[in-house]
Design a protein that fits this description.
The protein is of the alpha/beta class. The protein contains six helices and ten strands, in the order ββααβββαβββαββαα. A hairpin with a 7-residue loop joins strand 9 and strand 10.
Amino acid sequence: DDYLAWWVNGTYCIGLNNNLFADPTGAKQMYKDQLKWLEERLIYGNEEGASHIFIFGHYPWFLQKETEKDKHVKSSSAAPVGWGPPGTAIPDSYFTVPLEYRVVAMKLFKKYNVTACFSGHFHQNVVTKSSWGMDMIVTGPLSMTFSSSVQSDMSDEELGVGMRIVDVFADEKGKFTHEWKLLDEDKPFMDTFIDEVSMVQRFRNSVYTISLPEKKCECQIS
């Protein structure tokens, strides 16, 4: 499916095809259908007393402020070698959801107490918050990384290839922590991944295994 929702020990997770928010041209009915579904899921998560509500989508909703307009985002990211002539840069505004559609989502996220949004697409890290305290966390890829001209204003995390480890406190509403871990370039990816997973093995039962009332199970995770 383009979008889905699932529970993990009291945390309600919603995965969106937010490419439709970035540009619904040619798929306006799909955009409307997903938007209706999103609000239904947010209402449900609140009614069921979710300790956290996390939104996952490819596009970052914003890079610094939820009110930023494309024309006011003056920064850019240097293109990798081979992507155009030397000095080619990609406007950072290219990577986010335009304000016109972003405000629609932000109203819902604020109204229904979304804890945090996680995304990628930007090929570098961003750690920021909305004006009401919702976390906007963008994580770089396991491949090619970019560097914005204002990257240091967006995150103090070391630039490189890595993964983000998120620790959710199920018994404390809205509380979670996250840590960016660089991969060891001298080790195969899976070896490094196994090493990192072993660090959080004590959280395995709470993160990867769920046992919930049937009414709260929308998909099976094990």
